[in-house]
Amino acid sequence: YVFTTFIKLSEFTKSKKTLSKPGVRNVVLVEGVRTPFLQAGTTYADLMAHDLARGALQGLLNRTAFPKEAVDYIVYGTVIQEVKTSNVAREAALGAGFSDKTPAHTVTMACISSNQAMTTAVGLVASGQCDAVVAGGVEFMSDVPIRHSRKMRKMMLSLNRARTLGARLSLLGSLRLSHLVPELPAVSEFSTAEMMGHSADRLAAAFGISRLDQDEFALRSHVLAKKAQDEGLLTDIVDFKVPGKDIVSKDNGIRPSTMEQMSKLKPAFIKPHGTVTAANSSYLTDGASAVLIMSEEKALAMGYKPKAYLSPTYAIPKVLERSGLTLADIDAFEFHEAFAGQVLANLTAMESDWFAQNCMGRKAKVGAPPMEKFNLWGGSLSLGHPFAATGCRLVTMVAHRLKKEGGQYGLVAACAAGGQGHAMLVEACPQ
Amino acid sequence: HVNTLTRQLQDDMMEVLNEVWGNSAVKSAVIISTKPGCFIAGANIDMIKVCKSAEEVSKLSKEGQMMFEKIEKSPIPFVAAVNGTCMGGGLEFAIACHYRVATKSKKTVMALPEVMLGLLPGAGGTQRMPKMLGLPTAFDVMLTGRSIRADKAKKMGLVHHVIDPLGPGVKDPEERLIEYLEEVAVGVAKGLAKKTVTVEKKKGLMQKVQDAVLGIPLVRNQVYKTVTQKVMKQTKGLYPAPLSIIEAVQAGVEKGPAEGYHVEAVNFGKLAMTPESRALIGLYQGQVACKKNNFGKPEREVKSLAVLGAGLMGAGIAQVTVDKGVATILKDTTTEGLARGHDQVYKGLNDKAKKKSITTFERDMTLSFLKGQLDYSGFEKVDMVIEAVFEDLSIKHKVLKEVEAVIPPHCIFASNTSALPIREIAAASKRPEKVIGMHYFSPVDKMQLLEIITTDKTSKDTTASAVAVGLKQGKVIIVVGDGPGFYTTRCLAPTLVEGIRILQEGVGPKKLDSLTTGFGFPVGVSTLIDEVGVDVAAHVAEDLGKAFGSRFGGGNVDVLKTMIQKGFKGRKSGKGCYVYSAKKKDKQVNSGTEEILKAFKLTAPPAVSGDEDVQYRLVSRFVNEAALCLQEGILADPVQGDIGAVFGLGFPPCLGGPFRFLDSFGADKLVQKMKRYEDAYGNQFTPCQLLLDYAKDPSKKFHK
Q1: Residue B699, Cα to own-chain centre: how many angstroms?
Q2: Which residues pair with B306 in a beta bridge?
Q3: Is B225 buried (19+), middle (13-18) or exposed (0-12) by CB count in 10 A?
Q4: d(Cα A79, Cα A418) in Å, to the nearest integer?
Q5: Which of B324, B376, B375, B314 is CA-nearest to residue B345?
Q6: Distance (Å, rounded) from C-alpha A392 to C-alpha A119?
């Protein structure tokens, strides 16, 4: 559920002004890049997470020609952690040739991990602790840690401590077949024991979102993404050379289908009456993203043309209240599309007085964004959704859209497992 | 706001069904309830209670059978869409349909609880269940009457399809869930009509093997035999319903449906006329009555509570409180005591998680409501304090004074004591109107009863608050007047003392146990002494002996005291009447106790020492004391007396409680027996005035 993110949208007052506040440093997005997003198990299959992260970080440096030593801090998101690189931010940064004097930490917040990385970066810059921070995220679903069972692990650890041969043999003697059953990474949330897709299906049902609506929305996403790809609008992509293989330069999950073909698919989670299918869900994706976030003055001083202002907090109600905007002031919306059903349920919630009154403590509905401003270059359904890399993709994309479309304000929103949400207001910098 | 099967509903239903069948455009149908939380709760009990004869009840059963048969044999398929309670006749209705969809809402519970009312599923249940679930599972469901949640029902093959409950959307979640259930069920119904959905369930290998094995008549005979033996062992033959169920199932499986349905209807009629069924229905209705707050809505809801003493009782009270999300402080005087208490709460919750009735996450969240501590910090904010410290008046006084120094003015002080009069505890209080007794039974998380004791100074709002807390903890509540032993302990004490005399007279502990369980008590008297604790039993016997004099005499309390001296304190010390060891299941009589009993040997008067007399000596002292409590106004009414005796002390449920027993057995007959015992032993068996009044006029009944 991502509703928290929309809470006070309609409380804006209608007065166009910039997001900048006196006495607070303007925080800007200088550049944003990402590796191509590939379906898990395809060209990236033999890599590791930090390889992709390195690719995004290096790509960012290449594109901006930013001096490595001028980066004050690196914050990087990841969801499914590779045990060997638990602080993947640091491993990737060192591997990408960043200074070992630049501290790096990893953040995890499910699908909004890189949103949180950016928020942290914005905070570091706004508070004056840093001038230039790199934020980003990586997800690598082609390989995930699969553990030995707890029983097996316990035995192996005891084996380590066993002093004599006899003790070791007796431990080995306790080995049973059940010890060998591995533990797969949790696909369901720990607190609710529910899988995301299952939850999305229930969400769609709760809001009465039909299968047809979901398929149509997914098709829209793929068609728009294909168009954006063909027109060369996805300029945030940096090429990635896979050792021993080709140079990858395009997302490979965009596949506009037909309504007829999509309607043939069986539900993926709730069988047989569910509405969420493989075609109207985002797919398992490998990918990494990175953005350079700076104070406006420093960026200008270093000769950069910043792309967009980022609001200095991730709590959208506060941002919007302070900024005094209305929904109508927003020129470009970029919402995360985990599932078509989830996006449509959120849009329905924003249009519902009942929901506003009973679940948000508001007097009336928020109102939903108009579709002609909504996810016009495709979304996670079509471009792919490497969990922790999506946030930066959204922000960079909205910045690029504002530039292309000549808009002033953009709104980014995303949902995450655990009932959390994230939103960010983005304002185009003067050209 | 529940659906029950009544004549009216039956007629209305037939009308709609005929309409459906009369319209050729209707290709399939869905049965769904628009009432939140309830599909059909079962047949209306009053419909059965007003019947005067077995034939009349059999006719009811036959009507139900016919209606469901029409559905089963319907030319178009029926889908039952179940959300909420689906019990008894409701479940029989659902299984007569061709397909079942159920929501996994916590309120969705399926059961055939008729056996608990001394009845059988009389609308085809005994015939359809074995076909649907196989003999062993069907017997389990019908003989235990246990509740089955939707996901379990799916696994058992009782429902075809389950759907998850929904979160908030653009309207009330349950309203939307019922809509959604309807959408899904209609989809299934259309599929059935178009033959894209099939009714048949895929059978697993185990199921196939079981079916094949149960296809052999010899094997089935063995199943009937084993089940009957099990029932006899558990019920001692005191409950006719389980045997009737087996008979109806067997008739259907072995002799065909005509005979099966016939036996089901006839047995249903017979059972409805049995005193056992009357007793069990009385208990059910009494239980419903004791789950209401008759003292009004308390001025303030108890949102935080403190328990003093982290012993067995204190920790148990804390557990049932945090279980309902109430912030609870558990205070003890030592870290060891606190750790043990905390572990007890954790274990209680963890056991639930292991049984999958809650998730480990819910366990952790529940446990977060518990705060263990050694001091009185935070007591300035609690709404109620329940003390469960050692049963000693001076300690209770000390604790009361300490607590009153720190709690806010509105805070209620409740004492969990099994025998100390509340007015004596309240004597030390500055605000006796806020003092009340809350007598829990051990183990607190398992025993349903809570006995609330009010003094003449306890305010009505304090009582209302205590009842509200008890109800939240899931208890069945009786509210009784103050006095030594209140109601329950007062009935228990003379029974235990009589038990000791019987032991002194040379009846061994095992024999005494089998005599009591043979009468219908779930636990024999010797075992009960061990479970309660020999020290506690001695304490109670002595205290109440002082309060009530020779009427509470009989057995020699020194028997118990000598046992305590030797360390035989009951189960908790490993030795009491029996020797307890973790390894052996079959417990042995403690030879040390046998020696003590020999030393205190009494001669049994032959005229009143036969097996039956021994049983009635125990029961009559129990029942006479219960009647005295009603006579003296300790008890407000016989219903609470019956509920307290059955749910707190294990009075035989088939007898329905002491007052129901007097009604069915006859007060006059009991008085006659008591007079004989009185001649042999004296005033312990003198019937009270109320008993004599009822004996004189047989038309007088405690229950109408």
Answers
A1: 30
A2: B329, B385
A3: exposed
A4: 13
A5: B314
A6: 11
Separation of alpha carbons A42 and A44, rounded Å: 6
H-run or E-run covering A413: strand A409-416
Count of CB atoms situated within 10 Å of the CB of B686: 15
Could you say which of B92, B247, B387, B451 is catalytic?
Answer: B451
Q: Which two tokens stand for residue B17?
A: 């069904």
Q: What is d(CA B272, CA B117) in angstroms, rounded to the nearest whole number?
A: 9
* pTM, entire model: 0.88
In which residue are the tokens 């900048």 written? Answer: A20
Count contacts between A and B (CB, < 8 Å).
50
Distance CA A224, CA B417 (A): 74
Return d(Cα B328, Cα B372) in angstroms, integer.
9
Is residue B346 within 8 A of residue B368, CB to CB? The reply is: no
How far apart CA B439 and CA B421 sit, in angstroms, is 11
Residue with tokens 């040379």: B506
Helical pair B217-235 and B135-144, crossing angle rounded to 10 deg: 20
Whether B415 and B438 have beta carbons less than 8 Å apart is answered as: yes
Rounded CA-CA distance A54/A287 in Å is 11
Residues paired with residue B493 on neighbouring β-strands, in sequence order: none
Whether A352 and B170 lie within 8 Å, measured CB to CB:
yes
DSSP 8-state assignment for residue B114: G
* ipTM of predicted complex: 0.86
A270/B164 CB distance under 8 A: yes
- Chain B residues within 8 A of A346 when measuring between CB atoms: none
- CB neighbourhood size of B693 (10 A): 14
Residue with tokens 């506040």: A21
Q: Say yes or no: B294 contacts chain A, CB-CB below 8 A.
A: no
The answer to whether A234 and A251 are in contact (CB under 8 A) is yes
Interface test with B, best of A207, A212, A346, A365 (most B CBs within 10 A): A207
- The C-alpha atoms of residue B252 and residue B258 are separated, in whole angstroms, by 7
Full DSSP string of A217-245: HHHHHHHHHHHHHHTT--TTB--EE-TTS
Q: Is B22 on the interface with A (CB under 8 A)?
A: no
Helices (H), B437-580: 460-472, 488-504, 509-519, 525-532, 534-548, 557-565
Q: Which two tokens stand for residue B521?
A: 């008590």
431 residues of chain A, pLDDT tens digit each? 233 233 222 233 333 456 666 677 889 999 999 999 999 999 999 999 999 999 999 999 999 999 999 999 999 999 999 989 999 999 999 999 999 999 999 999 999 999 999 999 999 999 999 999 999 999 999 998 888 999 999 999 999 898 888 988 988 888 888 888 888 776 678 888 888 899 999 999 999 999 999 999 999 999 999 999 999 999 999 999 999 998 999 999 999 999 999 999 999 999 889 999 999 999 999 999 999 999 999 999 999 999 998 864 434 555 566 677 778 889 999 999 999 999 999 999 888 899 888 887 778 777 888 999 999 999 999 999 999 999 999 999 999 999 999 999 999 988 888 778 888 889 998 86
A386: cis peptide before it, omega within 30°?
Answer: no
CA atoms of B124 and B389, how far apart (whole Å)? 53
